[in-house]
Amino acid sequence: MKKINTPLTKADAVSLTSGERVLLSGIIYTARDAAHKRLVELVEQKKPLPFPIEGSVIYYVGPTPASPGRVIGSSGPTTSYRMDAYSPTLLDLGQLGMIGKGDRSPEVIRSMIKNKAVYFAAIGGAAALISKHILSAEIVAYEDLGAEAIRKLEIKDMPVVVAIDSRGKSIYDAGPKEYLKSLINLGGF
Amino acid sequence: MRAIKVDDITESVRKLCMDANYVLPCDISDALEQKQRLEPWPLAKDVLGDILKNINISKEDYLPLCQDTGMVCVFLELGQDVHITNGSLEDAINEGVRQGYKDGFLRNSVVKDPLRRINTSDNTPAVIYCRIVDGDYLRITVAPKGFGSENMSRIKMCKPSDGQIGVMDFIVETVSLAGSNPCPPIVVGVGIGGTFDRVALLAKQALLRPIDQRNTDPYYAEMEVALLERINMLGVGPQGFGGKTTALAVNIETFPTHIAGLPVAVNINCHVARHASVVL
To answer: What is the pTM of this model?
Structure first.
């Protein structure tokens, strides 16, 4: 399986193809609905963002609290379309990767093509498994948001799938079609 | 008349909140194992394999199955010969949720107001339904509901002339529109009949029935099987990446309705279809 380190370069993003399984390592940042709203407000007010956005990968997650002796609780992806209104603004600023689950809007996909960015899917509901790949977690902004605070995570070999690549090819479109085509070829109908 | 103390209710709800979030009911994990064996599409098989691994890690390492530990739905069957003593039933349930979510390191996912959106910081209040039944027992069922799948649920006031075909088309269309968002493979809870409000409750109650049990009415049992077959021909697959396994089961619950109406509700649950019960 291909291994990719973060922060990403445009060359990294372009090298990935929809449907590929990838192991991600390095630093990523967490943000969901409430944090995205605040980030985009900062951009509108021309204020600095709380983490380096260039080449960054943002993981749409609100983890469960860490029990004693753990760095973080369960940490699976939340549904990405709720971030669609905000993502193009951040991609224009240099964000190159997003991790979530579920399909994205045509506006986000157009912005991904323009900015050569990539959208990874983590397995929704596999939150305990994913937390095993998180080595450290530290709140960097919006502690008042609790689970929705922005966290800096260090990850090691986190399993993801390239859901939409930098050319706009989507597994949510191609995957089901290819599966159904395979049935016809096998005479499954 | 039998007395049940509110403290016992609080303790039960506390424990059920934790149990439901850490251990999946056997019928769901058995179905996932079976579907993983039968899944012909390679990526789909891998994804189902990871979902099964997650269930084991959750159990062994005591980590919640999913980070969305849900809004707590509580279903009560309250015997009419029971007297609740020492306090308020509703307060006792909410206190159980408060303690369970704190002690179980579960996420607080409830906001106090739907538009102003400030977190209540203890995952209360629960959504509570109570049915008065014969007898002197209290059955408490706790079902923490994640909103990735809840958001994909729909309701339609069909016309009686739409009939069984119209109802089935609406159900399949709902699953198709939900696509990758509700974390397939899903469990599809369907309510048919009653009123606008009752049909939604029926759909949610349908999710509480074990998925290896079909409706006791053969007409609806057949409809459940036919719907599952149609849904698994959509090709959505686990996580929407394509494949055979889009749904694990379709459960239908019904209620008599008005001569002018045919309400249908579809409540979708992800593969982390959690619920736990106790009888006091």
So the answer is: 0.93
